[in-house]
Design a protein that fits this description.
Layout (H helix, E strand, L loop, with lengths): L8 E3 L8 E3 L1 E5 L3 H12 L3 E5 L3 H20 L5 H9 L1 E4 L10 E4 L5 H11 L8 E4 L6 H6 L7 E6 L8 E6 L5 H13 L3 E5 L8 H17 L5 H12 L5 H8 L1 H15 L8 H8 L17
Parallel strand pairs: 3-4, 3-6, 4-5, 6-7, 7-8, 9-10
Antiparallel strand pairs: 1-2, 8-9
Helix pairs in contact: 1-2, 7-9, 7-10, 10-11
């Protein structure tokens, strides 16, 4: 990804030649995930419409994207011209009207079903009738979310990993009504962004990644709660014993303990299986406001 070229992805149809193109990507939510998605989309040549309800959040997002692009320049992975061009493709607004010219809009709000449904309701009033809609949800049913939109056949899950600019994976999830054309086009967009994709064959709670990852993190929290070992020994044991870059408790702090708890609750209620019940320690830390690195304290304490 040079950051110096424009990107256009053909919108695949089942009726012969492409009838539209993906040149403008909208991103709703300028937080950690949203600004990362905007970063990789702009760097891949897409025009980006980054939307949030808060001007302050948009200012922080622009500062984060600029800092991350500068880091890539410093490492020699990107030219200064490429970084400047990519930043020029990011347009921010608290008004959703600019999303009207986006051929694909990616929702990247907090992991709350109610919040996402409110966003989809608002988007239906501004998005073009033939535009595609994707959710960055990491656990909520795509079929359920799609049913509350005006375009269920043009809706699917597009779950980026955190931090988006560094992580190579995008997990794609089809809902019951997602069309083959939508799936093919969204896959092409993700690959144009330089991502490797995996497709969840079934729309089940947690999909692929969090179905496996969150019980692993939850079990580490439960082991700490029961006094099996210290947090450091649990993390070191898993890091060196399984050759992962960081232990489960450190990883949970980076993800956000509130997000981990929300996903465990989705798994627990979705499967109605006690093995997905959140550890009391995880519940208590979230109740205390100890959400991980973003709040300065989780399983570990972080300086500003």
């Amino acid at each position: 990804m040079s950051g110096e070229r424009g990107a256009v992805v053909q919108l695949v149809t089942g009726r012969g030649p492409a009838v539209a193109e993906i040149a403008v990507v909208g991103v709703v939510g300028a937080g950690q995930m949203g600004n990362g998605i905007a970063h990789v989309a702009a760097l891949s040549g897409f025009e980006v419409r980054l939307n949030d309800v808060s001007e302050a959040a948009l200012d922080r997002a622009r500062a984060t994207i600029e800092a991350n692009l500068a880091r890539q320049v410093k490492k020699g992975a990107l030219s200064e011209q490429g970084a400047f061009a990519a930043m020029g493709r990011v347009h921010t607004s608290v008004d959703q009207a600019p999303l009207a010219d986006a051929q694909l809009v990616i929702e990247a709000a907090t992991e709350s079903r109610a919040t996402k449904l409110r966003i989809f309701e608002a988007l239906s009033r501004v998005m073009a009738a033939d535009a595609l809609l994707a959710s960055n949800t990491s656990s909520i049913s795509i079929t359920d979310l799609a049913a509350h939109t005006d375009r269920p056949e043009r809706f699917m899950g597009m779950h980026f990993m955190n931090p988006v600019p560094l992580m190579k994976l995008v997990e794609l999830i089809r809902g019951v009504q997602t069309s083959d054309e939508t799936c093919a086009t969204v896959t092409s967009v993700a690959q144009t962004m330089g991502k490797t994709t995996v497709l969840a064959a079934k729309d089940v709670p947690g999909f692929i990644v969090n179905r496996v990852l969150m019980p692993y993190i939850n079990e580490a929290a439960q082991a700490l709660y029961e006094g099996v070992a210290s947090r450091e020994d649990i993390d070191t044991g898993m890091k060196l014993g399984t050759n992962v870059p960081m232990g489960p408790l450190t990883l949970a702090d980076f993800i956000g303990l509130d997000t981990c708890l929300a996903i465990m609750d989705v798994l627990y209620h979705g499967f109605r299986d006690s093995k997905y019940r959140a550890s009391p320690l995880l519940v208590n830390l979230v109740a205390a406001g100890h959400l991980g690195k973003k709040s300065g304290r989780g399983f570990y304490t972080y300086s500003a």
